[in-house]
Amino acid sequence: MEQFTDKMIKALKPKHYIYDVREKNGFAIRIFPSGEKSWVFIYTYSGRKRRMTLGDDKTTTLAEARIKHHDAYKMLKSEDKDPAQVQALQRAESRDSSTISGLIDEYIEKWAMPRKRSWKEDKRILDRDIKPAWGNRKAKDITKHDVVLLLEDIIKRGAPIAANRTFAYVRRMFNFAVERDLLCSTPCAAIKAPAKENQRDRCLSAQEIQDLWHGLETAPMSQATKFALKLQLVTAQRKGEILSAEWSEIDLETCWWIIPDNKAKNGIAQRVPLSELAIDLLKKVKQLNSESQWLFSSEIKDQPMRGESIDRAVRRSNSLFQKRKIKHFTPHDLRRTGATHMTEMGISRLIVSKILNHVDSHITAIYDRHSYDAEKRNALEAWGRKLASIINFLAGETNVVKLKKAI
Question: What CATH number did the domain enclosing 85 receive?
Fold first, then answer.
């Protein structure tokens, strides 16, 4: 066979079966039916035919493959060693020597980032709780006992729910390592979540809503954060979707907010009707932040506000809220509060579910293509009127906002 050239390799076409094209001394290229091509070294060792992969043609050039073949051929002839076996041992040693710090970086880059919009939270938790404890240790040396002790330490600092979240990220990371053959097994096997979690059912009463709405005026948080919390209560949408919203997705004239599928938590685009109370809030937000593409921009250039910022602001304000007799709540509880009050007003659970953009897995949902836009608008405008009455009447005021008729 004549000597390989780049032009010749490029011209090789796939067939309906795998075939090899050889050069001298066992240097060859393997062509797959898919069109993929792989450099190989075909040789005999101890009477057995062997094949060693040198790399694929997309990541390994012809010149690089020649060097690898030369080194493998020399090892076979001069050192009487099986190059494929040596290669396998080197790969195993490389896997065994990988550290937790390296595994975290690989997990974030190759699994979390491509699949999760919230990958930064994975990175934050793993960098905060795992790297300081295990960062320089080899991944293969982490035991089940290590995992249990780590989670117990997090619980001891008074953060049982954080221990559960950390365990979920660690378990997913080790499963990733097993799936990629970086580890033979996971140390998280048969370990249960360390803390018991009760499903949250916190819903603010009408009095708490009134106290919160007016109490936010003196709360130690930014004006943008105050508006974001109020908008979550008014629209009953997710905190992350509110913070990632852009002005291009808001139409103040037709009173619609479109949440695209790549921003919706469940991957389903959502049309949110905007009540007059919501429009009033958005106009104030616009005055506060008219230059940015985001409704709520962060201090970092060209970035929206982070959810952690809202959470921290609420925690910092807890003492103020408690003085107003508002029990502990989280931003997500505001979404639940809006939904609960709507059902108490007689709005059907189906319509509330459509407003919340929950996924309906029932068989009839597959055939139901009705948009429910009118029903959602009627519901949110009714909730807007109810919320306005709570805010104003409980304060002894009579200037209740009158909302427009449903479109």
Answer: 3.30.160.390
Q: What span, in angstroms and rounded, lies between the C-alpha atoms of 307 and 134?
A: 27
Beta bridge partners of residue 251, listed in sequence order: 256
Mean pLDDT across the chain, nearest whole number?
87
Q: Which of 87, 60, 64, 91 is nearest to 76 (CA)?
A: 87
Confidence of residue 306 (pLDDT cuts 50, 70, 90): confident
Q: Which amino acid is at 199?
A: Q
According to DSSP, residue 297 is labeled B
Count of beta carbons in the 10 Å neighbourhood of residue 85: 12
Residue 304's nearest CA partner among 312, 292, 291, 317 is 292
Residues 336 and 381 in one domain: yes
Q: Which domain, by its residues, includes 130?
A: 100-179
Q: Do 209 and 387 form a contact (C-beta atoms < 8 A)?
A: yes
CA distance 111 to 85: 30
pLDDT digits 0-9 by tens, 292-302: 899 998 877 67
CATH number, position 282? 1.10.443.10
Residues 87 and 14 in one domain: yes
Shared-domain flag, residues 281 and 332: yes
Would you say residue 116 lies in a domain? yes
Examine the domain organization and report whether 275 and 248 are in the same domain. yes
Residues 212 and 171 in one domain: no
Residue 267 burial class via C-beta count within 10 angstroms: exposed 0-12, middle 13-18, buried 19 and up: exposed
Q: Tell me: pLDDT of 348 over 50.
A: yes
pLDDT for the residue numbered 281: 94
pLDDT for residue 389: 92
Compute the distance between CA of residue 336 and CA of residue 263 in angstroms, rounded to an integer: 20
pLDDT band at residue 398, thresholds of 50, 70 and 90?
very low
Give 197's contacts (C-beta < 8 A, 6+ positions apart). 161, 164
Total number of domains in the chain: 3
